[in-house]
Structures are given as structure tokens and as C-alpha cells.
Amino acid sequence: MYSSNLTGFILALVSSTFIGTSFIIKKKGLRKAGVSGPRASVGGYGYLLEPLWWIGMISMIVGEIANFVAYVYAPAVLVTPLGALSIIVSAVLAHFLLGEKLQKMGMLGCLLCIVGSTVIVLHAPEERSINSVKEIWELAIQPAFLSYTAAAAAIALVLIWYFSPRYGQTNILVYIGICSVIGSLTVMSIKAIGIAIKLTLEGTNQAKYFQTWIFAMVAITCIITQLNYLNMALDTFNTAVVSPIYYAGFTSFTILASAIMFKDYSGQSASTIASELCGFVTVLSGTFVLHSTREPDPPILTDLYTPLSPKVSWYIQSSGEHWKQKDEDGLSPNFITILRQDHFK
After folding, report:
1. Helix, strand, coil tally for the chain in percent (to 5)
2. Which pLDDT tens digit goes with each residue over 104-118?
3. How far apart are CA 199 and CA 337, in angstroms?
4. Which residues pair with 323 in a beta bridge?
5. Which of 22, 91, 293, 311 could form a disulfide with 103 if both were Cys (CB 3.0 to 4.6 A apart)?
6. Where are its TM segments located (predicted)?
7. Among 153, 137, 148, 131, which Cα is nearest to 213's?
8. Which residues contact 302 (CB under 8 A, 6 or more apart)?
């Protein structure tokens, strides 16, 4: 059983590498697409025509496939927290490729993530043995998990229909909240599908059960929703902000959902559970230390009259007159008039 957890651990590492890389590639693709058309954050879909975005998407798919297989061999409370390693990959690559500086405290955050992940791996519970997708269905329709599913769906719908149009562009918790809540249901469905595929390959056909197809439809719906709002979050906010908050929310909700549905902590001692929770808190601390040391994205110029930096000197000639903007000066109304006159000549 522990060899099964080891397989899941290795697959989770591979997944984190590809997913962390995909954040950076997709971000560069979104930036390129935003130059020539509406940005994803305001409902634009020009990134679908950007090859760089698709490369990032392929990288994410490969990572998710590895993650998908990892859930077959190891419990969600082991696989999901290891997603923190993708934040380290993302932070390092963002430093070199996006110009988002990684400070010394950011390196400490990376170290905390590694230490916390190690503690989680050492104290992770054993994977529960399941022999049919119908067993998973029985776990999914127990009253406790049905209550969680209803609450998660209600929260997601309120965020999508009410908060997203009003506060999505200014409050990162809106988009990330949608991804996190829906993501917990995605993981439960994917785990069910993965086990069904594994059992089918071993000779016990699970495709004949309608429950398998219900899990598949739920997973597809949740994945599409997650990708849409994750793209909007990435295009609106700094990658270093999105990654740790998304990780914290997604991991917390997934561990909660898995604990309710699969009873992962059943049979574990109090000290083991406490150690694993300490590891999780250490990883969370690392992600937020990493986030706190990162610089925000520079504001994007949206029109001709966006205020210019007071530290830049300008030398303008118009109608035979000379005017110079000094470092300590603000913009003069006459300067804007000159710009307008020259613009319409």
C-alpha cells in the first residue's frame, strides 16, 4: 500500500512541474493576446488564437493527466497538498521569464513549501481499497457529502451570477473562490473516473454502470468552469497572487471534500492527523510568504491621457514654443492641450 502512495507521490511531482510551467506560458500567451484584442479579464477570447497559450494549455493537460493518475494510487489528502510544488516552479520561472522578482523571503517561502510537503508525505494515510465504481457512488450519495455538494454548488452559483460581474475585476477571491469550490468536486469526480478506468483495465468493466458516466459529466462541467475563471484570474491579477491563493482555497476545499466522502482520516491516530495538518499549515505559510514578497503587475495604459510618471522629463515643441516637464512637476493642462492639438493635426 505504501508503494501505491510512492507512485502517487512521483506522479504528483511530475504534475506540479508541468502545471507550474503552464501558468507562466499561459500568462505570456494572455499578454500577447491582450495586445491585439479584448483581454480575457473582460470577456475576450482572443487567447484561443494565440499558439503560446495553447502550448501552456498542453502543458497543463499533461500535468493534469499525471495528477489524474496520481489520485488513482494515492489519497487526495496526499496528492492535493503537493500542488504547492507547482507554485515553486511557477515562482522561479516567473522570476526569469516574466520579470516578477523572487526575493530572499520568497526563497524562504519555497523552502517552507518543501518542508511542509515532506511532512504531509510522511504522514499521509493509506489509500482506501475500492473494487467498483458503485462503491464510490455509495460514498457520494451519503447525506454528509450530498450536503457538501449542495453547499458548494450554491456558493459557486452565487459567486458566478452575483459577485463576478460586480466585483470580479477588483477582488481576487471571487474568481479564485469559484475555481476552488468547483475544483473540490472536480477532484472527487476525477478520482472516481480514474478508479473506474483502472478497474476496467484490470478486467472489470466499469463503463456499464451509469454512475461512471455521471461522474464523467460532472468532471467535464467542473473542469470547463475552472479553466474559464482561472484564465480570468490570471489575466486580471499577478501570477504570484493567483497561484498561492488558488492553491490555499483549492487544497482546503478538496481536503474537506475528500475527508467527508472517502473518510481519509478514519483509523489514523490524533498525532498523525496533527502532524499532517501542521505540514499543511507550513505549506500554506510558505505560499503566502512567497506571495507577500512579489511585486504587483504594472498598470496597463488604457488611453492617450493616462497620467505619465512624474519622474520622466519631456521636451515638447509646438507652434514654435518649447516646453519641458521637470521631474518634480505634475502634468500641466497646457501640456494636455498641446497633445490634443498635435494629435488632431
Report:
1. 75, 5, 25
2. 888 888 888 888 888
3. 74
4. 316
5. 293
6. 6-25, 45-66, 72-98, 105-125, 145-163, 172-197, 209-229, 241-262
7. 137
8. none
d(CA 246, CA 142): 28
Residues 6+ apart with CB under 8 A from 246: 176, 179, 180, 230, 233
Please tell me the distance from the alpha carbon of residue 100 to that of residue 81, in angstroms, as a whole number.
24
Q: What does pTM read for this prediction? A: 0.68
Taken as a whole, the chain contains a residue count of 345
Contact 48, 100 (CB under 8 A): no
DSSP state of 317: E
**Integer Cα distance of 176 and 287 in angstroms:** 15
pLDDT at 240: 65
What CA–CA distances, in Å, run from 91 to 51, 247, 263, 293? 23, 13, 34, 11
d(CA 286, CA 292): 10
Cβ atoms of 293 and 109 within 8 Å: the answer is yes
Of residues 75 and 159, more confidence is placed in 159
